[in-house]
Amino acid sequence: MDLKSKIRSINDFPQEGIIFRDITTVLKDGEAFSYAIEEMHNACKEFEFDLICGPESRGFIFGTPISYIEKKGFIPIRKPGKLPAETISQEYDLEYGTSKLEIHKDAIKPGQRVIIVDDLLATGGTAEAIAKLVEKCGGVVAGFVFFIELEFLEGRQLLKDYDVVSIVKY
Fold first, then answer.
1. Angle at CA of residue 53, ends 23 and 109, nearest 5°
2. For 77-101, what is the mean pLDDT?
3. Average of pLDDT values for 113-128?
4. Does residue 11 sit within a domain?
């Protein structure tokens, strides 16, 4: 299946000059969504891992079905104040300013191997922050699996120390 043909492109969103890759058209198409999950699951098979983690909200959408198939735990990465127990946080740069992500302090046992799953690799800042959170918990980043990669933004450069797989590339 040509997944790229299932992704809607919206010009000038959220600002002029940007082409937004809208995955809602894949999510609402049961066959396309199922195929996307299968492809991402197959990519995960390249790695030896114990857990999957992903950031809200689209990392949840793609990571939890793979976690379910593999019968392995899923670790949510959240915005500040969303997790109820003690957390570890990691700040990262945005185009204009900074943001922060959190993980439960006890989410990952030392030495556990973790695959990070998300919908999009753009500049790599979010992905790098998640890797740092996993490592702060004592985990090992086994690899990254993304649904879409915007290659022209060179996000892989920030992740050069990790194995990265993406299903659809622009």
1. 180
2. 92
3. 96
4. no
Number of domains the chain contains: 1
CATH classification of the domain holding 108:
3.40.50.2020
Tokens of 158: 């920030």
Select from 38, 54, 160 the least CA-distant residue to 103: 54
Residue 3 included in any domain: no
10, 26, 24, 72: CA torsion to nearest 10: -130
Are β-strands 87-94 and 113-121 bridged in parallel, bridged antiparallel, or unpaired? unpaired
C-beta of residue 144 within 8 angstroms of C-beta of residue 116: yes
CA distances from 88 to 67, 104, 116, 126, 129 (A): 22, 6, 17, 15, 11
Host domain of residue 94:
48-169
- For 125-168, how does the pLDDT look when each residue is reduced to its tens digit (9 = 90+)? 999 999 999 999 999 999 999 999 999 999 999 999 999 999 99
pLDDT mean across residues, the chain = 96
